[in-house]
Each structure stands twice: as structure tokens, then as C-alpha cells.
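Quick start: read one record
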Amino acid sequence: VQTCALPILKTAPANAWGSITARIAIAEPASLLAVESGPLDFGPVPVGEKRSLALTIRNAGGGNLGGKVEVGAPWSVAEPSDFELAEGESRKVEVLFAPVEAAEFKGRIEFQSGSKPYRAVNLSGEGVYRFQVADRFALDKKTEAGFLEITNLHAKDLVLAIEAPSPLVCDSRIMIPAGGSRKLKLSVKEEIYTQK
């Protein structure tokens, strides 16, 4: 804020001249951070993959607005976390969600600038496995074989590598179409029954 004194000449009664001094204050309007988004819900995201959603921040005041974006795992920000916005300027912030386990997550992205309390947006998302396997299966006593159903929960075809412990035998790879399921045949090695 700057102040200055301005002399003002004024006509007084009876045409007499006089002067007065007026003081005025001149200030640049304060910056003001506006976050143009409500809560961000990333929905279900397969473990090991990423989903991004964007929000917009804007300097709704005057001057320059500087600050930084803070967010915790499993979220991150795609571009640099520092920002500088001129009066009226806006910027998109791309927020990434990358779950490392199957669980529900809740968090906040915080925009630190100026005075507290900082502006924040709530985040939510769910880490999900890309496939689901029945937790039990039984071998048929007559055929010594059984089928294990595997369901692809993903929007893309999925190729899985299969390792079965001895004495089980099965295909080493299986392709499951997007949103579909396949039955994996498991059987017992014949030599188990022929050994004495």
C-alpha cells in the first residue's frame, strides 16, 4: 500500500482561496486462489494402472499468486507442483491416481498459497485387482481334474501366466477377454498314482 498527499485548491465563501491536503491510499488488489472443482472420485482403478482427472485453479484476485500443490500417495500431480498465476490467469492441474493395492482410498489435494486455511479438494478412489479367482475348487475324484474359473475385471483382454505347484498340471498361459471369464483346467500328474 502506498499513500500520497495531494494539495487541493478550493474556493471558500466570499471567493477566498484556500488549500487542503487529502491523503489517498493506493494498493494492488490482493490475489485470491479459486479452485474450480468439487471432490474428485477416481472410481475403481486396477492395481498397477493409473487414472487421471483434472481440475482448474485460478487467480480470482489481483497481482501475482504463487504457491504449490501438495498431495499424498497413491495420488500425484502430473506437472510441476509449484504454480504462479497472474491476475485472472488459470491453470489445469492433472491429478493421477495409481493404487498399489486393492483397497479404498481417501485423501486431499491441497493448494498452498497466501494465508491459511489452504484451499483443498477431497479425493477418493478404489484399487481393484484386474482379475478375480474363485477362492476354492475341488478335483473330481473320477477324472482327477477340475476347473478354476478366472474372471477378467478389466476393460482390456488379459493374458495371465500360470504356475501350478506339483503335482498339479495346467496350461502355463491363459487369455481372458475383457469383462469375460475362462475356466482353467487343473489335473493331477498321472505318475503320482503309478508310483509305489
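The longest helix spans residues 191-194.
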